[in-house]
Write a structure and sequence with these properties.
Elements lengths: L2 H4 L2 H6 L9 H30 L3 H23 L6 H19 L6 H12 L3 H21 L9 H75 L6 H27 L11 E4 H16 L5 E5 L6 E4 L1 H17 L6 E8 L3 E7 L34 H11 L3 E7 L3 E9 L4
Parallel strand pairs: 2-4
Antiparallel strand pairs: 1-3, 4-5, 5-7, 6-7
Helix pairs in contact: 3-4, 3-6, 4-5, 5-6, 5-7, 6-7, 6-8, 7-8, 8-9, 10-11, 11-12
């Protein structure tokens, strides 16, 4: 609630019991119901005082019923419970107003017009409002007609004409309110829907930026680490050439990620570039960079490749992102001096890549959440590394683009195994 609203007692009451995340329709119902209490309750209390002072006990009894209804209405507003009974309270107060106006002919029937205004918002269905408004209007016309002197002695035509003079303006009033509600609610509902769509779009854009920033950490970190190694004096020319090759590979990976960012939008998403590669050989070229990252925690990466060549059609850059994320997670959640196992197997239709660590594991109740973007299954690495909860979500998206699947088996304090299954034929 805004500070300016808090400083105004009337507006503060109108906002009472309305949560910040309430929908437009619920918010309007809350405003109108609170306004109905604000207008009606003081008059009921004042009338009770006057009637008691004049010893008019039956009118005072009616006032007590009205005050009780307003008290219940206030409780509903404050507690947020029994909101479906708001229309029941409106109907009861309308009936009481009709009885009081008929009994005392004190112009109390005009309260019905106020209640019709409240009803147009509180009733969900137009037909419900029309029935209520028609009943209240008929009661209003009847009460006004019986107050006309010598009504029975007037010609029937005059009676009908007088009745229409009272009824037609009320009918126009009722229909105008309904039309206003339909148009006003429709337009504002469209505005609310547009704002929600804009919020979703903004969140998607933020996710794209966060995703690319997340994955850029790996190649940039590689370049930084390799550059420091090259600056040492005890490296051979062959080692330096090998490291320069790794820098070039990491630079190209970073460039591909940046291109993903530039091409990602609501209408244009980077197309996958499939090519046929030999998987064992491809992994063998990735291992030095992966081991370089693992060296910081003295972790050894052990591999077991398939005994025969595996020719597979994949988007190499994206599958590399998957392996980078899986191995980075394994490093992050493994203790110093442990081991990470990468194994590749295949059958006639699929190849399977498993990454197994000896780390902290994942609680069973969180294993289904680890592939959700920004899930609450985020963990802290064994050296205090932050987890953004994004890497595994990215892996799942990429693997599904390849018509494959990714799964996890884990036990707390004993490690985790992530399995990627890819079809050997191009999807």
């Amino acid at each position: 609630m805004k500070p300016s609203i808090k400083r105004n007692p009337i507006l503060t009451f109108l906002y009472l019991g309305i949560p910040d995340d309430a929908s437009f329709v619920d918010r309007q119902k809350g405003y109108m119901f609170n306004l109905f209490i604000l207008i009606g309750a003081p008059f009921a209390v004042l009338s009770l005082i006057v009637n008691v002072s004049q010893q008019a006990y039956f009118p005072a009894f009616i006032n007590i019923i009205q005050i009780s209804c307003f008290a219940l209405a206030l409780w509903i507003t404050i507690s947020g419970k029994w909101k479906e009974f708001r229309v029941v309270i409106l109907i009861i107060l309308s009936a009481v107003a009709m009885i009081a106006a008929y009994s005392y002919q004190n112009s109390g029937e005009y309260r019905l017009l106020i209640m019709i205004v409240a009803a147009v918002v509180l009733f969900d269905r137009s037909w419900q409002y029309i029935i209520f408004a028609a009943t209240a209007s008929a009661a209003f016309v009847y009460i006004r007609m019986i107050q006309i002197p010598d009504l029975a002695d007037q010609p029937i035509g005059d009676i009908v004409f007088t009745c229409l003079k009272i009824f037609l303006p009320i009918l126009l009033y009722v229909l105008s309110l309904l039309y206003f509600k339909i148009i006003y609610f429709r337009n504002l509902q469209q505005l609310e829907d547009t704002n929600k769509a804009l919020a979703i779009t903004t969140r998607q854009k933020d996710q794209i930026l966060s995703t690319v920033a997340h994955d850029l950490r790996t190649p940039i970190s590689n370049i930084s680490s390799i550059t420091e190694l090259i600056q040492s004096d005890h490296l051979s020319q062959a080692d330096k050439a090998n490291f320069l090759h790794m820098i070039g590979h990491s630079s190209r990976s970073a460039l591909h990620l940046i291109n993903d960012l530039l091409q990602n939008s609501d209408t244009q998403v980077r197309q996958s570039h499939f090519e046929i590669v030999e998987l064992n050989q491809l992994f063998n070229s990735w291992i030095p960079s992966l081991q370089l990252r693992a060296n910081d925690k003295h972790i050894q990466i052990l591999t077991h490749f398939f005994s025969a060549p595996i020719d597979i059609s994949i988007d190499v850059d994206r599958i590399e992102r998957v392996i980078n994320n899986l191995v980075n997670n394994a490093i992050k959640f493994s203790p110093d001096g442990s081991k990470i196992f990468i194994q590749i197997t295949a059958d006639s239709k699929h190849t399977r890549i498993t990454v197994t660590d000896q780390g902290i594991g994942i609680p069973k109740e969180k294993q289904e959440l680890v592939f959700d973007m920004f899930s609450k299954a985020q963990r802290v690495g064994t050296s205090g590394e932050k987890s953004f909860g994004m890497g595994l979500s990215i892996c799942k998206q990429i693997i599904e683009q390849h018509q494959g699947n990714i799964s996890v088996q884990s036990e707390e304090h004993k490690g985790s195994t992530f399995t990627v299954e890819l079809p050997l034929q191009r999807p």
